[in-house]
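Dear support,

I submitted the protein below through the web form. The confirmation email said the job was done, but the results page showed an empty box. After a refresh the structure appeared. I'm attaching both so you can tell me whether what I see now is the final result or a partial one.
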Amino acid sequence: MSFTTSVRVAPQLYERLRSIEGVRIIADRPIGEVEMDHFAALFAHAAPTARTFFTGNLCQTEDFGDAGHLHLMQAGALRLVLAGQDDLVIDEPTLLFLPRGRPHRFVADAERGADLACATVDLGGRFGNPIAHGLPELIVMPLSRHPVLVPTCALVRRQHP
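What the results page shows now:
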């Protein structure tokens, strides 16, 4: 079974999406309609949201609780501590995604700290979201190895200097 869903997006966002390498827009309409595929059915029952709660230089140890989190480390160095796992040292621009709310701690480098943008993430769904359940507990994406993310991360940096 095949279906198509049409979604209206703001023209400015539409233009940004068109400029990002790797983004596929099926219908190129000037009014900003973008046709979507089967993933639209998953998102029809869940409304993902994100809220930025910190931007700046983290220069101390910080604990994060039971919410989903998205962290963009732009510069500096830090150590990610997750119970039951070896610590992970992050020393290059990296996107960290904890979709299901795993408690974690950042220990910032004492000398340079870490420039971060942090957001809570709720993938939506009243009784859980199949997308969230299908993702690993932690996704670590160094931007040097995932250059397609660089334009999106640059938008975050521009919105929250």
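Response: this is the final, complete result; the empty box was a page-load delay. Residues 1-10, 25-34 have pLDDT under 50 and may be disordered.
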